């Protein structure tokens, strides 16, 4: 039986907060078309990201990747 490995989702975003130990908050924005009104809108979501050693700075553009759950709300790591 072969074991299938799936690569997780990858997003690009901006670091907005680094106040926690080994954790950064990354804001990811999407540009989507509204299904009814056909107008484009920006949707944003914040993700808690594992940041080993607190190397990310506020305002930095980073790439994050989905991994196994690290804590209750952290499921991403910074790839750069």
**What is the percent of helical residues?**
under 10%
Class inferred from helices and paired strands? mainly beta
Q: Using the coordinates above, name the CATH class.
A: Mainly Beta
The helix/strand order is EEEEE
Task: Tell me, rounded to a whole number, the average pLDDT.
Answer: 94
Number of strands: 5
Q: Can you identify the CATH superfamily?
A: Nucleic acid-binding proteins
Regions with little confidence, pLDDT below 50 for 5+ residues: none
Strand share of the residues? over 45%
Radius of gyration, rounded? 15 Å
Determine the CATH topology: OB fold (Dihydrolipoamide Acetyltransferase, E2P)
Structure description:
This protein has strands at 10-17, 23-33, 40-50, 61-66, 74-78. It is mostly beta strands. It has one domain (17-78): OB fold (Dihydrolipoamide Acetyltransferase, E2P) (Beta Barrel). It has a 5-stranded mixed β-barrel. Strand 1 (10-17) and strand 2 form a beta hairpin. It is flat, with a radius of gyration of 15 Å. It starts with 9 loop residues before the first strand and ends with a strand. The mean pLDDT is 94.
Topology:
Layout: E1 10-17, E2 23-33, E3 40-50, E4 61-66, E5 74-78
Parallel strand pairs: 3-5
Antiparallel strand pairs: 1-2, 1-4, 2-3, 4-5
Q: What would the keywords be for this entry?
A:
80 residues; OB fold (Dihydrolipoamide Acetyltransferase, E2P); 5-stranded mixed beta barrel
């Amino acid at each position: 039986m072969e074991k299938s490995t799936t690569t997780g989702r990858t997003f690009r975003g901006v670091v907005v907060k680094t106040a926690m130990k080994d954790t950064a908050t990354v804001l990811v924005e999407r540009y989507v078309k509204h299904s009814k009104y056909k107008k484009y809108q920006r949707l944003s979501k914040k993700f808690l990201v594992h940041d080993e050693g607190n190397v990310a700075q506020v305002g930095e553009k980073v790439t994050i990747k989905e991994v196994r759950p690290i804590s209750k709300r952290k499921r991403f790591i910074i790839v750069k």
